[in-house]
Structures are given as C-alpha cells and as structure tokens.
Amino acid sequence: MNPEERRLLAVTCFGHFLSHYNMLVFPSVAMPLAAMLGLPLGAVLPISLYQYLLMGVTALPWGLACDRFGAKPLLVLFFLGAGISGLVAALVITDPFLLTLALAGVGLFSGCYHPAGLGLVARGITRIARGMAYNGIFGNLGLGAAPLFTGVAVWLWGPRAAFVVLGVLNLMGFVSMVLLRVDEPQRAQGQEARSTQGLAGPFLILLCAMMLAGFTYRGMTVTLPAYLEFRGPELLTWFQAVGGAGISGNLMATIITSGIFTIGAFGQLAGGWLGERVDPRWGYFSFHAISWPAVLFMVWASNLPLALLALVYAFFLIGMQPMENTLVSRLSPPAFQHTAYGVKFVLTFGIGALAVELAGLVQTSWGLSSVYLGIAGFTALVLVAILLLISRTPKMNPA
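Predicted structure:
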C-alpha cells in the first residue's frame, strides 16, 4: 500500500476498534451493574437498547451525510461525541434513565463509523478484501479489548470506571483525527470495472442476509459474558486456583470473552485471504455454514467446551465480514458507497438491536441457553438467504 492508503487505514482501523469497543463495554458491565442497582439482569439488559438501536438506525443518515460532506469531519464528530457521552454515562451510572440516555449518545455517534470508515476503505484501497480484513482485525481487537479493559476496570474501581475508560479512549481518537491528514479518496482504479452494479434484487437479498446475521451477532455479543459466567463454574474454579480466590466470576467471563474476540481477529485474516482467492459469495456462505453447528451446540455446553464452541462461532461469524463488505461494494452503486454501508448497518445494527430486547425477554422466560437456540435458528435463515443470493447473481471473481 502507498503512504496515502496507510494513513487512511490508520484512521479507519482505530475508528473501527473504538466503534466495537464502545458497544461491548455494557455487556461486560451488566452483571456488576445489576448488583449495584439492585435489579435483575433481565431488567438491566434493556438499558442498552437505545444505544444499539441508534447505532444502527442512524447509519443511513450518517452515510448520506458522508456522501454529501465527506467522511473525515464526521469521523471527528464520532470520536468527540462518543467520548463525551461515555464520560456522562460514568457520571449518571446510578440513574437507569439517565444512563440509558447517555448510552444512547454513545450509540448515536458510534453509528457514524461504519458508513464513513468502510466507505473510505471501499473507495480508497485498491485491494478491497485485504483492506477490509485489516480494518476488520482492529474492529475485532475492539471486541476483545472491551471485555478485558472493562473487567479489569470494574474489578479495580467499580462499574463507573468502565465508562470513564470508554470516554477517554474516544477523546484520544478525536485528538488523533485532529493531528492526522487524510484526504477524501476517489474510487480506486480497477474497482469500477469489478463492481456488479445495478443488481437491485440481489442487493436486497444480501441486505436480508445481513439483517438476520445482525440478530445473531448482537444476541451473542450482548449475552456471552453473562452466559460464560452462568455456565462456567469449573472455569471459575480453575481461574481462582491460578490467580487467587479474589477473581470474580465476572472477571473470569470477561477475560475469556476478550480472548475469544481477540483470537477472532485471525478470522478476519482468514476471511480476507479467502476473499482474494474464491468467489466471495461462496466464501461468505462457507463461513456462516461452519459457524452454525458451533452455536447450536452452545445451547447444551458448559465450562471449557462452551468456551471452545464460542471461539469457533465467533471466529467464523466475525471472519466472514471482509467477504460480506466486498459483496456490498460489488452490488452497490459506486457513487453511493457510504450510503450503501449506511443501509447495511441500519439493518444489521439497527434492527439487530432488537435482539437486545428479545434476549432479555427470552432470558427471563426460558433462560440464557434458549437465547442461543434462537441464534442458531437465525443462522439457518442466513444460510438460506445466501443460497438465494448465489442463485440470483452471476459468478464473481475474487476481490
């Protein structure tokens, strides 16, 4: 990559790290927060509903704004707004209503990243699949860092500290955006000819597949720390034997969740590598197909088998994203790259945010294991949608 492409990736990768970090702080603090507020977990989980909802439903207007005004000023706004909202959340943590509003602010500004950042990668990086893979790795590192940083902060200083860390990290992103020079790219040479544009029907099918996958992604990320804590008593015993009796179930679960998402970064590399060698439609299908039995068996697993199955599921669920984003680039009009990614994230993060409310209801009525049975059902529907997409589109060259 040339220096301009490297600067662009530096900005978008850090933004991707924080956009996912912002969304994974709350699940990791949910159990301690429930204890602090004296509420059951099923009542605490919906506090994050508007955070996830706004991150998704605002993606389309953010994408339109990026196509109109450029992505760089909106990325600056993302870092600044999310940082301030995180610090406000720390101040109002004992008031569920005000905390809901502060987290909604985190989600509102975090919703800017994906249409802005992914649109920049699609327009400014010649080798799309590889650029998406590098970008995705940092998003995955954000997934991995959030449970770890949050678990340690809660263990040392309490739940309030988790949101202080969130705010400070985002303000660091704001400072970096002020200092770095990133030009708005034109569409990279060679991508125009490879774009399979004008296929409105297949793009709608792809949107349906991504929406269903959004349910599975959000359902898993918002419940995994609590699920590991509930179903991992033997893991907690092992952690306490190694690290001391003071290690809590929440710290154990967040450390394991952090490891799962960090290792999932290699899934992004695998997805980018495969996307440069096979038809991205079939690569997309294969990753989802491998993830399905893993999440199904999570319904009955516990302790180490549960952690290993969660690792396999996350590896392939997250690893498919470079190929998914390549398909968005191929099937959308070049002049509306930011808007196309905005539409994607309205469906995956916006409608997918309803999985937070649904997970709370299912957990209250039937337990957390039933949440994963539902995730397996949605994954099966994703596979059906991808097969339909393959039947309606011509063969595609590797990215």
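Summary: The radius of gyration is 20 Å.
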